[in-house]
Design brief:
By secondary structure, this protein is mainly alpha-helical. It contains 17 helices and no strands. About 65% of the residues lie in helices and about 0% in strands.
Length: about 375
């Protein structure tokens, strides 16, 4: 399943090799603010799906707070600056740009309003995330095992310690020296890949939420330090990070709903087993590829949950730095349209793949641009 926000459980302690966050001089003395992940208040008639969605968030409270604190209170003075030749770095970032432009066309276009330094950093993060995802979903996925992922994690630690393996790794190493990025979200994404090697069913939404956090929510945590928070924003940094996390969760849930049929062909079902059972459904109904009334009702609730997270994400999108909002709003709007397309297909995501055509994508660009110009409000304070 591909992480697409740019657009777990790894050890919670950072290893000594992560120089930025292990150094005593880097430990900030400001207290951690007593903030938790925000969720929408329960409303009368709120569905069970939304209640479960709120419960799912609790699994990542502490780990997200730790990452946010590190990325907002630790300065880049704590990290050793790599000594790359400028021409080599230009080539590294140009390769990242080309990959992003080819593989994430709409998102790439949205990055064009960002400052050159932020553009390059986002491209470098996107490329690392894509390469990580391809370990499990790419052409060599059949040869994937924990040994390979362990090696990839060691390589990640080398990137954070100024020892990049190749030119694309070098772009991320330079990005890390320019922005306060914590290694933990990157490690958590690798843990999400491990989940894909050992797990093809999810008993409930709490389990699925953890998977979505690892493979997509983490990208939001990586992106906020680069995109920046608007100086005029009246809300806390934690609130903005929450919204970025929620966008990743919403995007991944949408990926799952779009790809149900394709995943079934690989013997995988990324749907909560207990919720399938509530509608009288099971894996065999997914593999049969027959769209029944029970399936339609089940899908309505799953789509409702994805929109629940998009609504939470929207509350913080306009609190990012003004020059960085366009790709985020583009992702929000386009992924919502994928959900619309599933509905337009009469909830047949078993034999059809919902997609947003080029014309519709082009129409969303000025809409997302207008939203990107919106003034931050007190909505999520």
């Amino acid at each position: 399943m591909c992480p697409t926000i740019l657009p777990y459980s790894a050890n919670s302690c950072l290893r000594a090799g992560n120089r930025r966050f292990s150094s005593k001089k880097c430990r900030g003395k400001l207290p951690i603010r007593a903030e938790v992940l925000t969720v929408a208040p329960k409303k009368k008639g709120q569905s069970k799906i939304h209640e479960l969605s709120v419960q799912g968030i609790a699994h990542t409270h502490q780990r997200v707070r730790e990452v946010v604190w590190r990325q907002t209170h630790v300065t880049n003075d704590c990290y050793r600056k790599p000594s790359f030749d400028p021409m080599f770095l230009d080539e590294a970032y140009e390769l990242c740009r080309k990959i992003c432009a080819e593989c994430a066309k709409t998102f790439y276009l949205g990055t064009k309003l960002m400052t050159p330094e932020r553009q390059k950093a986002i491209w470098a993060i996107y490329v690392w995330c894509r390469r990580t995802d391809e370990l499990v979903d790419g052409p060599n996925a059949d040869y994937m095992n924990n040994t390979v992922l362990d090696g990839w994690e060691e390589r990640l630690e080398d990137i954070f310690n100024c020892r990049p393996y190749d030119i694309l790794d070098s772009a991320l190493t330079d990005t890390i020296s320019n922005f306060p990025l914590d290694i933990k979200p990157f490690k958590d994404m690798i843990e999400g890949m491990r989940m894909d090697t050992r797990k093809s069913r999810y008993a409930n939404f709490q389990e699925l939420y953890m998977y979505c956090y690892c493979v997509a929510g983490t990208v939001g945590l990586m992106s906020v330090p680069v995109m920046g928070i608007a100086p005029e924003s009246p809300v806390s940094a934690q609130s903005v990070y929450n919204s970025a996390l929620h966008l990743g969760i919403g995007n991944q849930l949408t990926n799952i709903l779009r790809d149900v049929g394709e995943d079934a062909l690989r013997g995988r079902v990324y749907l909560p087993q207990d919720e399938l059972a509530q509608y009288g459904l099971c894996d065999e109904d997914v593999f049969s590829r027959k769209v029944t009334n029970q399936w339609r009702e089940f899908m309505k609730e799953q789509i409702s949950r994805a929109r629940f997270y998009f609504n939470l994400a929207e509350e913080g999108a306009s609190h990012l730095n003004k020059a960085s909002r366009w790709p985020v709003w583009s992702s929000l709007i386009l992924y919502r349209k994928i959900l619309d397309a599933i509905e337009e297909n009469d909830y047949d995501n078993l034999t059809k793949r919902a997609y947003v055509g080029r014309a519709k994508k082009l129409v969303t660009l000025p809409v997302s641009y207008a939203r990107a110009l919106s003034v931050p409000s007190l909505a999520i304070q």
